[in-house]
Amino acid sequence: MKNLLKQASELDRRQFILNTAKSLLGVSCASSLLAKPSFAQSTSSIYSGPQAKNVIYLYMSGGMSHLDTFDLKQGRPEQGPVKGIKTNVVGTRLSENLPQLAKHMNKMAVINSMFSNQGAHEEGRYFMHSSYTKRGTIQHPGLGSWLMKYDGNHNPNLPGVVHIGSVNPGSTQGFLEQKYAPLLIGDPEAGLQHSKIHKLFTEKEFANTQSLRQKLDQAFSAKYQQRKVSSYSEAYDDALRLMKSDDLDAFKVESEAQSTRDAYGKNSFGQGCLLARRLIERDVRFVEVTLGGWDTHTNNFERVAENSRILDQAMAALLGDLEQRGMLEETLVVLTTEFGRTPKINQNEGRDHNPTAFSSVLVGGGIQGGRFYGKSDEIGKSVADKRVTVPDFNATIAYALGLPIYDTIYSPTGRPFHIADKGQPILELFS
Asked: At a CB cut-off of 8 Å and minimum separation 6, what does 97 contact?
């Protein structure tokens, strides 16, 4: 038995130990035994992988075409007019739509074997963000809220989770407390709205108003000592603290040099990526930036080229900026989408939904770059090797952050949940 375990992969050995612990000790004990050292007194080499500190999560809403970006099928009619270009890693190619990211291929791990069982937009987004299928009876937490729940906020003056552009389905706090909810920034160039005392109030008048609010709330809070009531009160206090903090400057992208702003791109997504870097510098834990417009049922090649120009410039600038500032090793940059697009080009020069094979990218945070992981079949319709499910992908992100992916959290109704459901981290990406 001992020799067999030595020959097994790290993942197989861990799963064997997990199943044995579950059988002998029960789920809660197994969770504690197999948690990472940052959350338990375990020194097991199973969890010797690196840990990221923060996440910048770039979400391509609508279903980014893998065939026209990261998973080329050159020489096949399904590829269409898009050509490949060389990268800074010998023997690798990306789409001609991504010339700047091709210069950063040495940092990137491109997963071309992503698989989802959700082929509709809202359901796909929910699944990608939460690892669970969408149900009417419960809301599941997103990764940012899980990070805050387990590892907390590193800057008490700023929210731990910020979404720029939109809040996607499945990316909220779900059944967790309100204090783990993301803050939405609609326009990254507008700063944090409503964060100053109204001009009709003096400082003294504002303080008097808050004192009166606290007195009025006191009786209600004492009568209803519930988690939701205290969470809203804490959120209000956090907002007041932020209003008086110098950390508000983090939201002012206009204070950056014009050359830096231009490098990211003169558009909401580019400036959102710049804002994300500024927030991560101030110890915001999880920042999501959304770029929509990838639902290319018509004019796929033209629309993908336009969106790719925005993505390529902004993400390349972000990676270069993080590397120059020495922040890339502690910041995991994620690029993903809800599903890919079909190899078949329809009558409208478009591609339809394809959840059975698509691409995602991980950079920094201990991820070893310069590689493609897994592959789709010869036309990009299905996974051919090393299938990565959505929960597997999210478990890999959680693993990089040092989160206890096998711990059980119970919803208010007593149902057990895990950070990434039954997902298994891709340990190979860390070596």
From this structure: 68, 69, 82, 304, 305, 308, 309, 312
- Contact call for residues 352 and 297 (beta carbons, < 8 A): yes
Say if 229 falls within a structural domain: no
423 phi/psi in degrees, rounded to 5: -65, 150
420 located within any domain: no
**Does residue 132 fall inside a structural domain?**
yes
Chain segment 209-245, per-residue pLDDT in tens = 666 666 666 666 666 666 655 555 565 555 555 555 6
- 3-class SS at 210? helix
CATH of the domain at 380: 3.40.720.10
**Structural element, H or E, at residue 56:** strand 54-60
pLDDT bracket for residue 387 (50, 70, 90) = very high
What global pTM score does this model have?
A: 0.82
Q: Is the pLDDT of residue 17 over 50?
A: no
pLDDT at 290 (0 to 100): 98
Residues in the chain: 431
Residue 292 is inside which H or E element, if any? Answer: none
Structure tokens at 334: 């994620």
Question: What is the arithmetic mean of pLDDT over 266-294?
Answer: 98
Strands 108-115 and 388-389: parallel
Q: Give dist(CA 18, CA 13) in Å, integer.
A: 9
How far is 173 from 143, CA to CA, in rounded Å?
9
Bridge-partner residues for 336, per DSSP?
A: 59
